[in-house]
Amino acid sequence: MAERSADLALLARYNAWANEKVFALAVRVEPGELERKAGYESIAEILRHLVHVESNFLLISRGEARVPVDEADVRKLAKRCVEIDASYERLAETSSEADLGREFLVPWFGFNISVREAALQALTHSQKHRADVCMLLPALGIEVPGIDLIQWLAESRDTGE
């Protein structure tokens, strides 16, 4: 793995861990509460959007067609997110610099980005939406633990990951 890819691989592993934590918290919420709009969107909609964006940046970076993520069941979204996040980890760990530098058109923005930039966009975009969900959960009686990178680093060092 190239040195620049090491940071992308670290971010991909952290993203998978943080997504898993947030989905584990969300499935503890009553289904009706997951659908209730609190602020700009419901928890279920925010998580659906997170999975949709991660999935579609991955697909178009591979030259595949976008596929809408319309699922509303948070448990099913969690399973799909695990699959997508594993793909980002593989992408970061196995891609050459040439692979990561390959550009493609993002049709909804109208300009080209690299595979590396697409992965970074998807992974950092998810951070924003995990924060959205974490702001809504305490009002539903769910205590939210720290899910910053430093918590993942501490936990992974404790477990030897």
Specify the oligomeric state: single chain
Strand content: 5-15%
Terminal CA distance: 18 Å
* SSE pattern, N- to C-terminal: HHEEHHHEEHH
Estimate the mean pLDDT confidence: 93
* Level-2 CATH architecture: Up-down Bundle
Determine the number of helices (DSSP H or I, runs of at least 4 residues).
7
Rg estimate, integer Å: 16 Å
Query: Which stretches are low in confidence, meaning pLDDT under 50 for 5 or more residues running?
Result: none
Could you say how many structural domains there are in total?
A: 1
* Morphology call: globular
CATH topology: Four Helix Bundle (Hemerythrin (Met), subunit A)
CATH C-level class is Mainly Alpha
The number of strands is 4
**Which structural class best describes the helix and strand composition?**
mainly alpha
Biggest β-sheet: count, sense, barrel? Answer: 2 strands, antiparallel
Name the helicity range.
55-70%
Question: Which secondary structure elements does this structure contain, and how are they paired or packed?
Answer:
Elements: H1 3-26, H2 31-35, E1 37-38, E2 41-42, H3 43-61, H4 74-94, H5 97-101, E3 103-106, E4 111-114, H6 115-136, H7 149-159
Antiparallel strand pairs: 1-2, 3-4
Helix pairs in contact: 1-4, 1-6, 3-4, 3-6
